[in-house]
Fold these 3 entries.
Entry 1:
Amino acid sequence: MFVLGIDPGLTRCGFGLVEGSLHGPESFRAVRAGVIESAASEAVERRLGQLAGELTALFDEVAPDAVVVERVFFQRNAKTAIPVAQASGVAVALASVRGLEVRQFTAQEAKLAVTGYGAADKLQVQGMVARLCGLRAIPQPPDAADALALAITYFATRRTEVRLIEAVS
């Protein structure tokens, strides 16, 4: 199963594709990760259009089974929160139009799933993503590592849900 994690942002939108299974050993393979960037000097509508186009091409290329987008939970600066929410909306809508399962997790939920500690720092998350995916180096840039962490969070969450369903059955 392939899960695409998206760390939304208008200037830098991280993405990470992880292969894993909902059953069997808990192993992951980072298939692809990177960022989609747009120039801050461009108009917001053009930047959102560019993001939509590049995400569409990415969805077509990697054909994920599910998409996870970071949920904006708390933001000190509204100037930052609004573009992140707009980018998030683009990603969620594009995945939904394709009929893909879409999940959203906060950064704290991803930190908890990946490191076991919801207040872990970025370096701890990046290190655990590398370890869980069997990578020799920490994924760069940090936005890509965050997106991989979101995809891993999907697997951790769905595995727990599957186990609960099986236990009740």
Entry 2:
Amino acid sequence: MIETDILIIGAGPCGLFTVFEAGLVKLKCHLIDALPQVGGQLSEIYPKKPIYDIPGYPEILAGDLVDRLMEQIAPFKPTFTLGERAEIIEKTADGKFKLTTNRGTVHIAPVIAIAGGLGCFEPRKPPISNIFDFEDKGVEYIIKDPEVYKDKKIVIAGGGDSALDWSIFLSDIAKEVTLVHRRSSFRGALDSVDKVMELSEEGKISLITEAEVVGLSGNGQLESVTIKHKTQGSKELETEHFIPLFGLSPKLGPIGEWGLNITKNAIDVNTLDYSTNVDGIYAIGDINNYEGKLKLILCGFHEATIMVQSAFKRIYPDKKLSFKYTTVNGVQGFE
């Protein structure tokens, strides 16, 4: 049995930063994650992808951000249950929560912070009949190591930020990059759209709009894709990799059975302290929902900071929390 002050479900960036904020007020944290390593999506989906909106870092790779967060929280000695899914929550006689994982590990804590990102997720796959035959044989839904595509011919499909960003990034690594999108306009950031257009004009990206990849061919390994244009018919294009980036399909999994108020696969919270309708359970990061919500790591860090202050008051109702800037003495204390 594992006992702690704040039990954090999700060891992604928001969950990790929660450890830092909790450590400043001398609260212990234990983190649970279904993935076998910390970092959440940053580690599992795009560890080599650059991130541009973290304060103090004009650019930082996702995996490096995870390393920096782990370095930041190391003094507070968090503990982890990795490779296990939070399954069942019960209330104990003294008002705490008892959480049991799918492997039977029992955790006890007065406060639970759900920082599960998108929850359980899987990539959205295009409706190509034989796509399963080429998975891990030229078809990838997630880019973990860009060096895999060095000097290769690749086809990316999609019109959002991920498709645009990876097309830009891989244009300096791959031999050929073809971006296929079923519409003539894109959903991603305007700056990224402009950059793709520039690279297309320079010949570094082959841009095919109003078209879809409808077929895959190869003898045990992907060798070509069939692209169907809305008005110009179909053509076959030689390629070594096909990467459909249509986003992730989020599923809350067991969290959806815990009696929480949920809207469109996200947990409703009170923006006063990011508490849920269940007293003692909070939700921060991409997994929560409120008016004006922005799914940014930066916003999740803010939510974690506010949530910890509320959690402290719940755990120590008779103690006065004295907020002090970390630049004053490196810690916050209570009286």
Entry 3:
Amino acid sequence: MSKINIKKINDFFTYRNDFLHIEDVSIMDISKTIKTPFYVYSTSSLKKRYIDLSYSLKKIRHSLYFSVKSNSNLAVLRVLSLLGSGMDVVSAGEYLRAKKVGVCGDKIVFSGVGKTYDEIKIALANGIRQFNVESIPEITLINKIAVELGTIAPISIRVNPDVDAQTHEKIMTGKSENKFGIPINSTLGIYEKASKLSNIKVVGIDVHIGSQITDLTPFETAFIKIAKLVGQIREKGHSIDRVDIGGGLGISYSSSKRDPISTDNFAIMLTKIFKDMNVEIQIEPGRFISGNSGLLITSVVYLKEGQNKNFLIIDAGMNDLVRPAMYDAEHEFLTIKDNLNDNNKILVDIVGPICESSDVFLKNKKLPKLASGDYLAIYSAGAYGAVMSSEYNSRPLIPELLVHENLVSVVRSRPKIEDVIKRDQIPYWLR
């Protein structure tokens, strides 16, 4: 038996005899049957990320609710639900996805600033652990619907602590100018009003200051404020059993670097702040679990060489992965064949085919000189990738695949362009 040469990228992405594998499956083999671009996720990575976080928190009374908005594919949710994860949802659609994979209502937390009548009614009728509420009008509406259904609605009040999360401005949610939460100085009055409503039960307090946070300091600043507030609320006679601290743990977008925050250090910080408060800590990880569990596989359409710039045009576009255009995000690119043309590297801008100047993934990247048909993998594509994709330029949504050891399954198919077009209807007076 010939020896297999293995070069490790992370625990579940490796080069084997120079070809990129996800677990035990060759990306090149997948690409022979699934046309690029497509997303592919590692079951083992999803499991490990969840289990590692749980283990770090083992000494803390806690519960985990995967943030469905980061990756809402039913197969991904099923993997996590079988591990015992609850779900954090922000729409009726996400709620029904969680139910579809077998998550009980009492393990679903409903967040979001704009819950509608229909969404609240669906959740109350089918079971909910709590609504993370963000305004007096929302609390009033939840109470009204609970009265109509003859039930009690559990709520946790989301507080805006006015803390700078030191992340991209478009994913900060805990500053006073952000739309999320109730100003921290108004919270006591809100608890007083909510506690007087007939069909509302206030069970806790909620805070979420942002996403992709890479330093413990903003978390610590926010949580110290929340711990103090819990004490003040209890002094007024209100029961606080749960503190929902949201998500936001950042990941490394480089395969050669560790995550910026150690989960063990995160747990130590939580213990220091909440150890004597007799509360359950609820955490809503999303990107931390799914981000580095997925790749976006793409191929080169053209290498466009110019006098001042070289453009590597790939078949994945900003409609497939919008993060670089929306958040100035930089994803690492891996060649499917290791050391491909390694002695003939050129400087390129990696761009997509969308008719927008913002359809750029990386600028001034040194890569082996690639040709039409060569494959690339975009790293850290498991979160806020497929869920934020669109059919801009009438490009069908791309497939999603899930790998488990040597098994691979398509978990969302690419629709035919004819089916995409059929969804539109020409009114009778234009026929």
